[in-house]
Amino acid sequence: MQRLQQSGLTDQLALTPGAAATIADLDGTCLVNSAAMLIQQHWQEEGVLMVIGATGAVTRLIAPLLKDKESDPAVLVLDAEGQRVIPLLGGHQAGAEQLSREIAATLGGEAVLSGDSAVSGRLATDVFGHAWGWKRGGTSASWTQLMKAQARGEGPRLIQSMGSKLWQSSSAAQSSQLLGLDAEAGSANSDSAIPALEISTSIAHAGACTWHPALLWLGIGCERDTSLNLVQRAVSSALEEADLAEAAVAGISSIDRKGDERALQDLAQLHHWPFRLHTASALDAVPVPTPSKVVAAEMGTGSVAEAAALLSAGPNAQLKLHKRITHANDEERGAITVAIAESMEAHAPQRGELHLIGSGPGDLALLTPAARSALARCPAWVGYGLYLDLLEPLRRPDQIRLDGQLTMERDRCQQALSLARQGVRVALVSSGDSGIYGMAGLALELWLDLAEDDRPRFAVHPGISALQLAAAKAGAPLMHDFCTVSLSDRLTPWEVIERRLEGAAKGDFVVALYNPRSKGRDWQLQRAKDILLTERPASTPVVMARQLGRQEEHVSFCRLDRLPVETIDMLTVLVIGNSSSRLEGGRMVTPRGYPGAELS
């Protein structure tokens, strides 16, 4: 038995020495020990245990440790070559199925799923909400009853009053026998034998299965040094009075003078809630139903709790509970006022993820494992339609795509970032490498504009750029210093582009030209050609690579002085050699060194 370094809540184990080579691809260093002892040591509630070995052996090893589906960890079994990943235990509630997909994508293997929803292309209603940033409510018995009914082809009634409804457009949702799709708020039908599927901020009704988007903001005002127990009691009582679920709370809010109140800080930390603070003037400008002259004289605003809740909840927010004052009992100290507002848009950036995906030139075989894994993780894909079309064979029935227009990059970034702030795992797709003339820079700038506690997880996943593939198809033209220049002056003044071309020419760089020529920009390529010819031979070889990675791919060569400018378009990437580059044997090569240099 070999164990690899623990990563987060994931323990990785190999049953044979040969299996260790595969699991090492996922990170770690090996230690040898007893199989049963290691599994027992690293059997963690809500954890993940990944084992490489035979399913039968793993089944026997974990059998004595099994308790129930609420507490058992996810157990994944991989074959020794990492080509098959099996979610042996905790497929839904512990997340084993989803993790299997992501690991299989990383290893270039296959997730072997046998669950009914995965096999039938139906939405896994008991787990799908996690990827949308929601928390689950309802009893395990109700969820089990709902899932069994769906397996029989009997759909539950959907009641969605709040939260994003984008998930409903997925083909998996459409085939999940959900009755009353896009229904408005209402109570579950208690006469029905099938639990209703509710998406709301309300406490789960008897027998219902509920997902809670983070839409509630708790506005809190309190006396100095109010005890934490009193704060917790008041919050729980307020939520219960309003028939609202704690799982639907987005955060807490108060006046800035309460920013150092220890009980409020502890409450936010215990529940992982953001703690927003507002100035007295900002709060005083918020219309509230019950302003107080006493509070105004003391705090500079007629309302703290109600105004703070509404201000944090944002435009068109509604008060779900007017301020309630709770006083200390004999074992507590202080007094606290609580109000609750409901936002129109969920706020859960701590659960959201924004993944910048470089989709490569278009051939799925050239998609990097990191990009594949991130795509498998995200239920929402955002991108220009053509780029999403190229990835369409990888999209599962439970994943949606949000197509954007070619020149509307900022809109796509804003849309993706907004969803991630709501708690959704989002893939924002660019062609090639998203960090090279792609979406990563713009998305990162918008992300940095947010307050630190309002930022979702941000990750950039590399892709194969058109430059790299063009070079690989042509031979070895990038063996010495090179640069890339985009000839599009939509975002960069032509004067700047021209200075860069002149610098590249004088520096004898191999030059890759992106966006070389369009109908609206038909003269810039000729000007670039003229600039480069001032500093290098007319015979300099040029690679013309069009539609790289796609069925229409065409790669050819020419001399710089004979570059057919009129035939070049935006689907073409040009690689122009330096003074030492040459074309020979149908391949272009740039020597690693100049004549006279010592090569090793």
Low-confidence stretches: 1-9, 28-32, 182-191
Give Rg in angstroms. 29 Å
Largest beta-sheet details: 7 strands, mixed
Strand order of the largest sheet: 3-1-2-4-5-6-7
Straight-line distance between termini: 44 Å
Separate helix tally: 19
Structural features, described:
This protein is of the alpha/beta class. Helices cover 28% and strands 24% of the residues. The strands form six sheets. A seven-stranded mixed beta sheet has the order 3-1-2-4-5-6-7, with helices on both faces. It has a five-stranded mixed beta sheet with strand order 14-13-12-16-15. α4 packs antiparallel against α13, α15 packs across α16 and α18 packs parallel to α19. It is globular and about 90 Å long. The two termini are 44 Å apart.
Task: Note the main attributes of this structure.
600 residues; alpha/beta; five-stranded mixed β-sheet; 19 helices; globular
